[in-house]
Amino acid sequence: MSMLELRAVTKQYTANDLALNNVTLNIEGGEVVGLIGPSGAGKSTLIRCINRLTEPTKGSVTFQGRDLVGLSRRELRKARTSIGMIFQEYALIERLTVMENVLSGRLGYVPFWRSFLRKYPPQDVQRAYALLDRVGLLDHVNKRADALSGGQRQRVGIARALAQEPDLLLIDEPTAALDPRTARQIMRLISEICEERSLPAIINIHDVNLARQFVKRIVGLRHGEVVFDGLASELTPAVLTEIYGEEDWSKTIQKGGEEADAENEAA
Amino acid sequence: MTTAAYPTVWKKPPFIKSTYLRYSLWAAVLVYTFLALGSVEVNWSRVVEGADRGMRFVKAFVQPDFVSRWPNIWKGLVESLTMTLCSTVAGIILAIPFGLGAARNLVPGWVYIFCRAFIAVSRSFQEIIIAIICAAVFGFGTFAGFVTLTFATIGFLAKLIADEIEATNPHALTAMRATGASWWQQVNYAIQPQISPRTIGLCLYRLDINFRESAVIGVVGAGGIGATLNTAMDRYEYDSAAAILLIIIALVMVAEYFSGIIRKRIQ
Amino acid sequence: MSDTTSNYSDSWDRRSRAERLIRWVLWLVFVAVFIQSWRIMNEDTLWFFVEDAPRQFADISSRMWPIRWSYMDQLWKPLWDTINIATLGTALGVVIALPIAFLAASNTTPNAYIVRPIALFIIAASRSINSLIWALLLVMVLGPGLLAGIIAIALRSIGFVAKLTYEGIEEINKTQVAAVTATGASSVQVLDYAIIPQILPNFVSTAIFRWDINIRESTVLGMVGAGGIGLQLDASLATLAWPQVALIFIAILGTVVVSESISARVRKALI
């Protein structure tokens, strides 16, 4: 049995808007999957259907042997505590401090009075410090989130997701708002962390080169349907045409390779 | 991951950093609250006595009487509505020169100071106070109410127009000056398009306010539905008073609904 | 140059003929309505009084002179009362307005068909009725005094603060809410972590703004017996003691100016 199984997941927003059409996908423990596709292909919807930030219209999402779609609100909250999520625009609470943002990853575990008084259990605080150290922000603990740069904010986002001690990470366009260099640093951090903890993850990513460089398994979505599921090395111009449409892909792939080489040299 | 080396407690940094200042502010707030509450004298036997009247008023709200004083109510309403319309129109027409005159980027210093002083006086005094003076000067009745509301409208709109003009993009004004346009042409081409949408919205908002105010200045003799309401209260005709209040609420809600639609259309 | 431009049309209009026609008709209707309103409004106006107004104004102004400064001794207490009415009334109103705002905002209301309309009606009713009318009603029930004034100010403030706050709640960033929800937080926790921090600055500045307005409003509540400097104003007007009236106006102006500068400073410090 796989860690996460999506069976015929369908999402229909309005009568003519079929965002996801019968998506079936298995993800094993420790596996990192890159989700690519043109904008509007349903990548974000798919990720949000897993933790039911968006309710799927049809289908089942089985996580660790339980179908999330049928859960009550209380059970869903409990299930969400073990699924970490990282967002495109960081989605930090900008007016709260970095520490509060990281601790907010523990909200599903602590009673309301603790979260309200900011009196988290000692091991939660300790873990939060350790995570902030891991993502390199130990000096910024008491800063407000809106005082940080984009890359730093995304690191807080990562720490918040990890504070949940998740069994699965859902990552929605983690680099879309970042410059190319920071984007690579963030992608590297995410893949290192997933490897360290053998944490399975689904990463939405629109940059094919980044996906090829950091992710082994790639799933291609087009018009809400899975049109490719295979290794990153199998992404040929023909496959990319299938996913994105007609374009001279040979240059993109080649150039991506060069860029990666150049960066490796620099590092 | 080993976390043992990290601290187990974290305290949110206080909003006011200096401990001394923080506690003295708290103390000041406490002392003020104590003193202010102490200055409130409540005559409980009077409250008990009045509770009965209060109940009668609440009952009157359930069974308002629109009929027996209808001629008076109707007259008051017509007065209020005509006062509202006339004073808003007159107020807008007069607010434009005062607004232009109070914009630092358009006029010489002495005009600016005169207009700002006029606006400050108009805004500082509650409509009721102005109404008292107007009733003394122009005689009791709607004309005094009209002058009151016009005066208040000028202060309200002229300040907002002036602030709006000062916040406009200065390049447009420079560009118009560069073409050799006259002062009026500059205002017409560079300022007016930039401030129109919001100003129209503000005028509609002021129409709402003027109607609400027209319902109250009658209490001091400046005509309108407020006079009718005051009479009803003096005669202990709570059911008629409740009817008047319900009509005011309904009209304000209708006016807000329509001004919302108009505002959406012009923006 | 002239030969090259002669091929083009020599007239340009921003609007088409039909559009211009409609605009003219609308303006005409508007002017007609205005003139008619003006006539109805002035049916009972005695123009004799209006023509006499400049003389009346000059007369009243001259009777205000010399201002009776010694009366100030009796004004300090009413001024203090006025400030207390505004401050305590604002505090009470703000405390009640916050939960109502959450009930009225479409994204936080527990029930969109029953609770939300009720909350919206409370807001509309509170906003439609001027604090002076609230005071009129409350003096009748509670008797004259500060308490009636405080509650009147609170009742009027609820609608104002709740309206601006619920509009703020409806405009919050949804991803931040999604992020907190995704951690498995309960709805109160989402409120505490994702929604309140986002609306707090807006809420605080609305409350301060309302306090500013309430200072002005509470200066007249005494006219109907609800305490504050309005009592003295009413008494002075009743006895035609214009030199005292003038001093009261000056005192009100001073209080308003000071309160405005205080609120501007507090707002800057907090946000």
Short description:
Chain A has helices at residues 43-50, 73-81, 98-103, 112-117, 122-134, 150-163, 180-196, 208-214, 237-244, 249-266, and strands spanning 4-14, 17-27, 32-36, 58-63, 66-67, 83-86, 168-172, 201-204, 217-222, 225-231.
Strand segment count of chain B: 0
Structurally, the number of domains of chain B stands at 1
The oligomeric state is heterotrimer
Rg from Cα of chain C: 27 Å
- Structural class determined from secondary elements of chain C: mainly alpha
Task: Describe this protein's structure.
The complex is a heterotrimer of chains A (267), B (267) and C (271). Chain A has 267 residues and is of the alpha/beta class. Chain A has a domain at 1-72 and 202-244: Rossmann fold. Chain A has 10 helices and 10 strands. Chain A has helices at residues 43-50, 73-81, 98-103, 112-117, 122-134, 150-163, 180-196, 208-214, 237-244, 249-266; strands at residues 4-14, 17-27, 32-36, 58-63, 66-67, 83-86, 168-172, 201-204, 217-222, 225-231. Chain A has a 6-stranded mixed β-sheet with strand order 6-7-8-3-9-10, sandwiched between helices. A 4-stranded antiparallel β-sheet of chain A has the order 2-1-4-5, with helices on one face. In chain A, helix 5 runs antiparallel to helix 6, helix 6 (150-163) packs parallel to helix 7 (180-196) and helix 8 (208-214) packs across helix 10. Chain A is globular and about 55 Å long. Residues 260-267 of chain A have low confidence and may be disordered. The termini of chain B are far apart. Chain B is mainly alpha-helical and 267 residues long. Chain B has a single domain (69-266), classed as Orthogonal Bundle (MetI-like fold). Chain B has helices at residues 19-38, 44-62, 70-101, 109-124, 127-138, 142-166, 170-178, 183-214, 225-234, 238-266. Chain B is built from 10 helices and no strands. Chain C has a domain at 87-270: Orthogonal Bundle (MetI-like fold), CATH 1.10.3720. Helices cover 76% and strands 0% of the residues of chain C. In chain C, helix 5 packs parallel to helix 8 and helix 5 (76-104) packs antiparallel against helix 10 (187-218). The longest helix of chain C has 32 residues, at 187-218. Chain C starts with a helix and ends with a helix. In chain C, 41% of the residues are buried. At the B-C interface, helix 1, helix 2, helix 3, helix 4 and helix 5 of B face helix 2, helix 4, helix 5, helix 6 and helix 7 of C.
